[in-house]
């Protein structure tokens, strides 16, 4: 039985009924109840959303937060209440900002509806009854009608013009016409035409089926299991920030411990050395850094939302900027997700739609006759016939597209319906692949219209229409039409043929024998159109060093046709289907992954393997999708991108939701993500340069057995208050012009690269040498310790307000852009200077921090140090720029 589970499509219906111990009249009521008790309800496990408390507690996971909390605890124990209060304020602000943003995002993505419809029609004890879908069991006989959602995985045993839309499961955009005959055991999921699957939708006809799997055992259940088994991996930035926090925390802890031990050995009081160790910890940890990074992510999150994309987590906003590969579903992502007639090709030539039609000239053309045929040989209709302009068209997606094309081409639908009253019809049959209708035409003649598969319709034809004249259809003409079919199919079009013939009105019926000596009229090409902006978006991706990859459940010819339309070059070895992936192990797939641009006929497990292979190659992967089948890959990817019109399961397992279903929005989000990361790096350099200089000052004073140049409270004031406003202003930097012309950073690249470390070291050393010598000089000439500390305090605070302008760009010098173009930064620097002056000249703060008043000559010294620092930073940048020009980086993927 276990072997049969995945091969129901290969077994005859009678054999399946026997295996499931059921019959066409259905299960007995008691038997169904026993099966339900034994196997459980027909429902999928539901993941509980994060509560507000869990979202709040998640804000405390970062190593820097933990270090700050430890420092706050020590400050409280040693009764340094000012230090304690300032540190706790920084932690609280960071936590509140992160909590508010993430809680709002999670709340907006709550499930709006259940995946399983509440009711199903089944046969029990020989009668058709309606039961809750959750009570369907394996062996139930299901009655499936057009419009119904399939309540379980089932094998069809009767089908009457039955088709289903399986886009949410397989990615196939076209309805699947169903059959009941067995298929080969190796048939792919998307091609199992004798099966219907949980949560797909019946769009046409009627069928009787036997439920073969429910709940967790269904294909959808397998996907749910795959989702639950995929761990929540940290983003590249989370990994790097965690490493930065742990490294910084480890270094600070070791140095502080060594300083404490060293001081006690030299005979210093242990309590005094504890205070000194706390001062060192406070100097080394940039308290404002966490708050500033949280703010830059929150602002980025809101900016992305304004571009019609919703990020579920703060950290996702940055991860977008490092995306190097976008694995994109085709249906509804690169395409519009709706069928549309694109061409009507008669024997003499093609009419491309939509096009400009010149009134009466079109009305008498061969193209108009073809559109009239597919309009009248059609079951689509207006939902509200009295308001055809605004009314929705109801019916099979293909027939809706034909109906719409006829209407938009100017045909008078109501007049045609009155003039050509339908008398008989042969409904579409998946096996015969055509539909035929008979209409009143004149008093002495009826007319038969046929549409269907070209080879089938042509078999009925003996003539063809050309410029309004009927000609004999010979071998040469048939060959030409067949070539036209192949050419259109090569463009990824679905092809239908249209034909007609006059008929004796006295004939009482319409049968297959009447379909002969017909007149071939035209080929009609339909397509799920590519989004207008898709080609430009793909170009922008490539310009930004991002590799676009198509991953779809559609046929490989359809996928390659779409790829060509959006600008992806088709080569002999850059397209692969799901069956080929199955023949490869993970190592073999990893070897070929970089040469493949198109994956077709893929199933959920293939998508996860594709994402994993790209990640193993060092790529940061974004996966787009809208269906249930996309959910495992969305969760596995670094950035899962769901369409707003997609399924709830896809949204709940994504990181980003495109509210407008616009592929261009992904590029906009990537652009914003890159700006976010740039701004994070600028903020890190700005804060750590200050902290590094402060730490060197503290260590230097201990080595030379001097008084501390700065007290912990003074350090906290500079880190949080004086530097706080400028660092917040850096969070709204608009981004540099070349941000989308540089390659994505590699997954392994640290958040602090070599250039950043050199800049931090340079600023820190310059600050340390200048201020430390100044501090020693003040003490040697007999100045009070408080006065010397005041000079150092003023210089550190004011000089950081100078070099923040250099931090506006780490790739360009201050001389290549307007340093005053960020008005928020100007206001922040003025505000920071005002706050520094408050600490220096307001008596309350003077007493609180142990400061003294400075005079004009003191300020000249302070300003001179600031100018020297800016010049040193900009000269260093020039060396970096020259080095980059000598070795221009290339895209890694």
Account of the 3D structure:
Residues 108-117 have low confidence and may be disordered. The protein has 893 residues and is an alpha+beta fold. Strands 10, 11, 14, 15, 16, 17, 18, 19 and 20 form a nine-stranded mixed beta sheet that branches. It is elongated, with a radius of gyration of 36 Å. Helix 3 packs across helix 5 (81-108), helix 5 runs parallel beside helix 27 (712-722) and helix 9 runs antiparallel to helix 26 (663-703). Helices cover 49% and strands 16% of the residues.
Q: Give the termini separation.
A: 46 Å
Give the fraction of residues assigned to helices. Answer: 40-55%
Strand content: 15-25%
Number of alpha- plus pi-helical segments: 33
Pairing-aware structural class of the strands and helices?
Answer: alpha+beta
What's the main sheet like? 9 strands, mixed
Mean pLDDT over all positions:
82
Task: Outline the low-pLDDT stretches.
Answer: 108-117
> What is Rg?
36 Å
How would you describe the shape?
elongated
**What's the number of extended β-strand segments?**
26
């Amino acid at each position: 039985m276990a072997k049969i589970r995945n091969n129901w499509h290969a077994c005859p219906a009678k054999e399946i009924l026997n295996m499931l111990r059921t019959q066409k009249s259905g299960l007995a009521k008691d038997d169904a109840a026993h099966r339900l008790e034994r196997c459980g309800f027909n429902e999928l496990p539901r993941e509980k959303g994060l509560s507000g408390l869990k979202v709040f507690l998640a804000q405390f996971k970062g190593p820097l937060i933990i270090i700050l909390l430890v420092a706050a605890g020590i400050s409280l124990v040693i009764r340094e209440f000012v230090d304690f209060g300032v540190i706790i304020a920084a932690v609280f602000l960071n936590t509140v900002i992160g909590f508010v943003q993430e809680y709002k995002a999670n709340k907006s993505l709550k499930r709006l509806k259940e995946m399983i419809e509440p009711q199903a029609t089944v046969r029990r004890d020989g009668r058709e009854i309606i039961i809750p879908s959750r009570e369907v069991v394996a062996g139930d006989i299901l009655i499936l009608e057009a419009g119904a959602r399939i309540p379980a995985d089932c094998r069809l045993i009767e089908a009457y013009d039955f088709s289903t839309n399986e886009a949410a499961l397989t990615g196939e955009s076209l309805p699947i016409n169903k059959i009941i005959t067995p298929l080969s055991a190796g048939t792919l999921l998307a091609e199992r035409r004798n099966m219907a699957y949980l949560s797909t939708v019946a769009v046409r006809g009627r069928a009787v089926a036997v439920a073969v799997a429910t709940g967790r055992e269904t294909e959808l259940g397998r996907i749910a299991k795959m989702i639950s088994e995929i761990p929540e991996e940290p983003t590249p930035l989370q990994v790097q920030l965690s490493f930065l926090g742990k490294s910084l925390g480890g270094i600070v802890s070791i140095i502080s411990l060594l300083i404490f031990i060293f001081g006690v050995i030299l005979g210093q009081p242990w309590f005094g050395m504890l205070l000194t160790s706390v001062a060192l910890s406070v100097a080394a940890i940039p308290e404002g850094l966490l708050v500033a990074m949280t703010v830059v992510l929150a602002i980025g999150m809101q900016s992305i939302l304004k571009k019609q994309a919703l990020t579920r987590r703060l950290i996702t906003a940055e991860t977008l900027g490092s995306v190097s590969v976008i694995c994109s579903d085709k249906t509804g992502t690169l395409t519009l997700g709706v069928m549309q007639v694109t061409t009507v090709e008669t024997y003499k030539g093609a009419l491309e739609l939509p096009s400009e039609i010149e009134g009466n000239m079109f009305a008498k053309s061969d193209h108009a006759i073809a559109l009239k045929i597919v309009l009248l040989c059609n079951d689509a209709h207006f939902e509200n016939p009295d308001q055809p302009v605004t009314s929705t068209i109801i019916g099979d997606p293909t027939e809706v597209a034909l109906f719409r094309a006829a209407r938009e081409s100017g045909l008078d639908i109501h007049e045609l319906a009155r003039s050509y009253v339908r008398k008989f019809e042969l409904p579409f049959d998946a096996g015969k692949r055509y539909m035929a209708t008979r209409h009143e035409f004149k008093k002495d003649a009826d007319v038969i219209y046929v549409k269907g598969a070209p080879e089938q319709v042509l078999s009925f034809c003996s003539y063809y229409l050309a410029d309004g004249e009927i000609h004999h259809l010979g071998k040469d003409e048939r060959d030409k039409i067949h070539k036209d079919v192949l050419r259109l199919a090569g463009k990824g079009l679905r092809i239908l043929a249209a034909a007609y013939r006059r008929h004796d009105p006295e004939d009482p019926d319409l049968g297959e024998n009447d379909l002969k000596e017909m007149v071939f009229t035209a080929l009609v090409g339909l397509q799920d159109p590519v989004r207008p902006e898709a080609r430009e978006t793909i170009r922008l991706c490539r310009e930004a060093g991002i590799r676009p990859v198509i991953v779809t459940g559609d046929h490989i010819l359809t996928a390659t046709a779409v790829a060509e339309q959006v600008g992806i070059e088709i080569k002999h070895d850059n397209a692969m289907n799901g069956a080929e992936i199955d023949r490869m192990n993970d190592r073999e797939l990893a070897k070929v992954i970089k040469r493949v641009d198109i994956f077709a006929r893929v199933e959920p497990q293939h998508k996860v393997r594709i994402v994993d292979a790209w990640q193993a190659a060092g790529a940061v992967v974004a996966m787009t999708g809208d269906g249930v089948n996309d959910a495992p890959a969305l969760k596995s990817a670094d950035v899962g991108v769901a369409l707003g019109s997609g399924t709830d399961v896809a949204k709940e397992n994504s990181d980003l939701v495109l509210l407008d279903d616009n592929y261009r929005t992904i590029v906009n989000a990537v652009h914003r993500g890159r700006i976010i990361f740039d701004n994070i790096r600028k903020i890190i350099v700005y804060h750590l340069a200050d902290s590094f200089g402060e730490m060197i000052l503290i260590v230097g004073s201990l080595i030379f057995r001097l008084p501390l140049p700065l007290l912990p409270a003074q350090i906290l004031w500079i880190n949080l208050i004086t530097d706080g406003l400028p660092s917040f202003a850096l969070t709204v930097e608009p981004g540099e012009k070349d941000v989308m012309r540089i390659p994505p950073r590699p997954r392994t690249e640290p958040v602090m690269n070599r250039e950043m470390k050199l800049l931090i070291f340079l600023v820190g050393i310059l600050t340390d040498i200048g201020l430390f010598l100044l501090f020693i000089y003040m003490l040697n000439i007999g100045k009070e310790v408080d006065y010397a500390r005041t000079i150092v305090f003023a210089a550190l605070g004011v000089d950081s307000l100078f070099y923040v302008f250099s931090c506006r760009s780490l790739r360009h010098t201050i001389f290549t852009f307007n340093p005053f173009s960020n008005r928020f930064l100007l206001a922040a620097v003025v505000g920071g200077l005002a706050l520094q002056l408050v600490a220096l000249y307001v008596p309350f703060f003077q007493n609180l921090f142990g400061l003294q008043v400075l005079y004009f000559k003191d300020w000249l010294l302070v300003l001179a140090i600031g100018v020297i620092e800016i010049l040193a930073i900009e000269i260093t940048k020039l060396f970096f720029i020259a080095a980059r020009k000598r070795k221009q980086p290339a895209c890694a993927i």
